[in-house]
Design a protein that fits this description.
This protein is an alpha/beta fold. The chain contains 13 helices and 15 strands. Strands 3, 4, 5, 6, 7, 14 and 15 form a seven-stranded mixed sheet that branches. The protein starts with 9 loop residues before the first helix and ends with a strand. The structure holds zinc ion (2 copies).
């Protein structure tokens, strides 16, 4: 079948087995293209008709050419919700018509890593969606290992809130809050007030820390952080973050420093904020080496953790969102149609000007 340009006749195209999809064309190149609709190949596969998807900071890294595993021609996207269109013979938990949440991590549940709860390192899964296999920024997506990579959406579930459960909520919670050992009465600093930093802020409150300090260079994002429960906000382009954190913590430094940006200066800042016995929990995707100041930290009894989200906490977080203990819809700032995705990327990529946090794309 010959690819046609996407147009308003996309329904006709669907009848002929084509769909609209956002395709990475190599560093700096992207386009909305007509692609063949995916079909079930393996027994564990499901094809999902996308309802809503979103754009992640990781997608911007890919477009810059920072993610070598993602090659030109790949449909991007690893988040979203949809309706099961068809399933392979081996899929037991889902059937056509089910409304589902798609996890950003694909898990076979059988390999050595999956058996240890490290789904992110699944030997036939992990973070493959929109990376080494085609992703969710399309009208349809193929999900391998569907039984253990999808979740049923409860009736009446808030669709935008559930899109936040694909990636940013489990990422902020597992890599930041759980790895950082946030506990009642403790002090926490989160460096980076973007969507993932704010997801860490929302989920850290499940453990009632005494101080929750958000640090960023964007006043608008700090204002949102304050609304979402930050006890203190620091703009480190105009204020001295180290001095201010020491003042807030009576000179001790914080128990948990969460890095949610992914550049050397923010990881170095975490090393300056951490108190004795504390934990630096890295979330950021780093592309460059960082200096480790062992000359200052060797006697401080600290820990440093790294992690790729495993999404093992998705069932727990799903309950917390459903019962409104966590309300992630406040992170959604913009809505677009899938065929406006170039505009959506522009809005998301220029967050300082547009105030964008998470942009929702309607795929139908
Ligand atoms: Zn992501
Ligand atoms: Zn596995």
């Amino acid at each position: 079948m010959i690819a046609t340009k996407p147009n308003s006749e996309s329904l006709t195209d669907l009848a002929s087995g084509m769909m609209n999809a956002f395709v990475y064309g190599g560093p700096g190149k992207m386009s909305l293209e007509a692609r063949p609709k995916p079909m079930v190949n393996a027994a564990g596969d499901a094809v999902i008709r996308m309802i809503k998807t979103t754009i992640c900071g990781t997608d911007l890294h890919i477009l810059k050419g920072d993610v070598p595993t993602c090659v030109a021609g790949r449909i991007l996207g690893h988040e979203g919700i949809g309706i099961v269109e068809s399933v392979g013979l081996g899929v037991a938990s889902f059937k056509p018509g089910d409304k589902v949440l798609i996890s950003c991590i694909t898990a076979c549940s059988k390999c050595e890593y999956c058996r240890r709860g490290m789904f992110s390192h699944c030997t036939t899964g992990g973070w493959i969606l929109g990376n080494t296999i085609d992703g969710t920024q399309a009208e349809y997506v193929l999900i391998p290992h569907a039984d253990t990579s999808l979740y049923n959406m409860p009736a009446g579930a808030d669709e935008d809130a559930f899109v936040m459960l694909s990636d940013i909520l489990p990422t902020g919670f597992e890599c930041g809050v759980l790895n950082g050992k946030v506990s009642p009465g403790s002090s926490v600093a989160i460096v980076g007030s973007g969507p993932v930093g704010l997801a860490a802020l929302l989920t850290a409150q499940l453990y009632s820390p005494a101080q929750l300090i958000m640090i960023d260079m964007d006043d608008n994002r700090l204002k949102v952080a304050k609304r979402l429960g930050a006890t203190h906000t620091i703009n480190n382009s105009s204020e001295n973050a180290v001095a201010k954190v020491l003042e807030i913590t009576d000179g001790k430094g914080v128990d948990t420093a969460i890095e949610a940006v992914g550049v050397p200066p923010t990881f170095e800042l975490c090393q300056m904020l951490i108190g004795a016995g504390g934990t630096i929990a890295n979330i950021g995707v780093h592309g460059h080496p960082v200096t480790l100041h062992l000359e200052k930290l060797w006697d401080r009894n600290i820990s440093i953790t790294t992690r790729l989200v495993d999404t093992v906490t998705t069932p727990t977080l799903l309950n917390s969102v459903q019962s409104k203990k966590i309300n992630p819809t406040v992170l959604v700032t913009h809505h677009f149609k899938l065929d406006q995705i170039l505009e959506a990327y522009d809005t998301f990529g220029n967050a300082q000007k547009t105030g964008a946090m998470k942009v929702i794309l309607d795929c139908q």
